[in-house]
Design a protein that fits this description.
Low-confidence stretches: 134-150
Order of helices and strands: EEHEHEHEEEEEE
CATH architecture: 4-Layer Sandwich
CATH class: Alpha Beta
Shape: globular
CATH superfamily: Clavaminate synthase-like
Strand order of the largest sheet: 1-2-3-8-5-10-4
Structural class: alpha+beta
Oligomer: single chain
Number of strands: 10
Number of domains: 1
Strand content: 15-25%
Largest sheet: 7 strands, mixed
CATH topology: Double-stranded beta-helix
C-alpha cells in the first residue's frame, strides 16, 4: 500500500496514511513524503509509536541527519539522547522533569515563541520529525507569498504515538504552555538542508 495524504489544515498540513514508519520505505513512498512536505509543509502520522532508534532510522531514509550541538544547555554528562536528536523535552537523564529554575527549563521558555529550527546556521535545517511521547498541543504558523501578512495556524492536538513533520523553510512553530511538573518527552530529528539560503560574502 502506498502513501496517502489528506489535507487536515485550513490552508496547509496533511495527515499521512498507508505506511508503517517502522519499516523500510520504498523509493515511491520516500518521494511521496518529500512531495507531501513540499505541498503541505506539515505532515502528521497518527498512532505510530516509535522508539528513538526507529525514529532515527525513519528520518535517515529522508535525508542526512543534523547533529544537535549545544541545543538545550545540557552538559554532555547530562545528555539523555545522542546528538542525532535535539532533546527538547523537559526531562533530565533520569527522565524526571527539570526544576523550573534549572537552566534547561529557563532556556526552553524561548520555545514558546514562534520560531524555526536551525535557521541561523549556514545550511539551515530542512525539516523536523517529532514523535509524540505524551499528550500535547503544538501550533505551527505558515506564511505564503500570496498572503504573507496573514497568519495561518494549524493546531495539532497530539496523541501519544503521533509523529509530526514540519518544513523549516515554510513554517514556524511554537510550544504551547504546559505544567512544569508534567513530563514532556520530545525528541527532534532534523534533516540537513539542501544548501545555504543566502549568498556568503
Amino acid at each position: 500500500m502506498g502513501v496517502e495524504i489528506r489535507q487536515v489544515g485550513a490552508c496547509f498540513a496533511g495527515e499521512v496514511a498507508g505506511i508503517d514508519l517502522t519499516e523500510i520505505l520504498s523509493t515511491e513512498n520516500v518521494k511521496a513524503i518529500h512531495d507531501g512536505m513540499n505541498k503541505y509543509a506539515v505532515l502528521t502520522c497518527r498512532k505510530q509509536p516509535l522508539t528513538a532508534e526507529q525514529q532515527l532510522a525513519f528520518s535517515k531514509q529522508l535525508g542526512i541527519i543534523e547533529h544537535a550541538i549545544d541545543a538545550t544547555l545540557r552538559e554532555d554528562k547530562d545528555a539523555r539522547l545522542p546528538s542525532t536528536f535535539a532533546d527538547v523535552s523537559n526531562l533530565d537523564k533520569e527522565d524526571r522533569p527539570f526544576d523550573i529554575n534549572d537552566r534547561p527549563s529557563l532556556f526552553a521558555i524561548g520555545n514558546r515563541l514562534w520560531h524555526s529550527d536551525s535557521s541561523f546556521i549556514v545550511e539551515p535545517g530542512k525539516s523536523n520529525r517529532w514523535p509524540v511521547c505524551s499528550r500535547f498541543k503544538t501550533s505551527t504558523a505558515g506564511f505564503s507569498q500570496s498572503c504573507y501578512a496573514a497568519k495561518i495556524v494549524y493546531l495539532h492536538d497530539g496523541q501519544k504515538g503521533d509523529l509530526v513533520m514540519t518544513d523549516n523553510r515554510q513554517t514556524m512553530h511554537k510550544v504551547r504552555p504546559f505544567s512544569v511538573d508534567e513530563p514532556r518527552d520530545m525528541r527532534r530529528a532534523t534533516i540537513v538542508g539542501d544548501g545555504p539560503t543566502v549568498v556568503k560574502k
